[in-house]
Amino acid sequence: MLPGRMRPNLCAHYAQKIDCEDCEYYSLLPWLDEVCTEQIVVELHRSTTGAIRTDGAKRTMRNAAKRRVILMHRLMSGLHERGYAIYYVEPNVRFPWLNSEYSLIRRNPCRKRSEV
């Protein structure tokens, strides 16, 4: 659930573009739980949050890669459970090995305000 100050006063939203340097892994699913969104365009980043421990020591690359896979799987599974399907993927032209942009569409359209 989104905090009160972040909770949108919307019942449905047509499109949402997200490019927030790793916050997509933690903020997209709560948004979708609150706001029915027809289309999502999200740039998924090579997460760096899992690469450094809180004590400042670097983790091994293997552990960082494993954490990225877990975050990506959790996000994509959550999107699938909420009824979204990928219809287009484009690598970031500047950093294709790091970031990709995913376009997703809701399989069942949101209800219009008049139908609620």
Structural commentary:
There is one protein chain. The chain has helices spanning 24-34, 61-81, and strands at residues 12-18, 36-44, 84-91, 100-106. Helix 1 packs parallel to helix 2 (61-81). The radius of gyration is 16 Å and the shape is globular. With 116 residues, the chain is α+β, with helices and mostly antiparallel strands. Strands 1-2-4-3 form a four-stranded mixed sheet, covered by helices on one side.
Notable features of this structure?
about 120 residues; alpha+beta; Translation Initiation Factor IF3; globular; disordered N terminus
The backbone outline, from C-alpha atoms, is globular
Strand order of the largest sheet: 1-2-4-3
In the CATH hierarchy, the third-tier topology is known as Translation Initiation Factor IF3
* Low-confidence parts: 1-9, 50-57
The largest sheet is: 4 strands, mixed
Please give the count of helices. 2
Order of helices and strands: EHEHEE
Q: What's the rounded overall pLDDT mean?
A: 75
CATH architecture assignment: 2-Layer Sandwich
Determine the fraction of residues in helical runs and give it as a percent range. Answer: 25-40%
Which class best fits the helix and strand makeup? alpha+beta
What would CATH call the class?
Alpha Beta
Question: What is the CA-based Rg, rounded?
Answer: 16 Å
Strand fraction = 25-35%
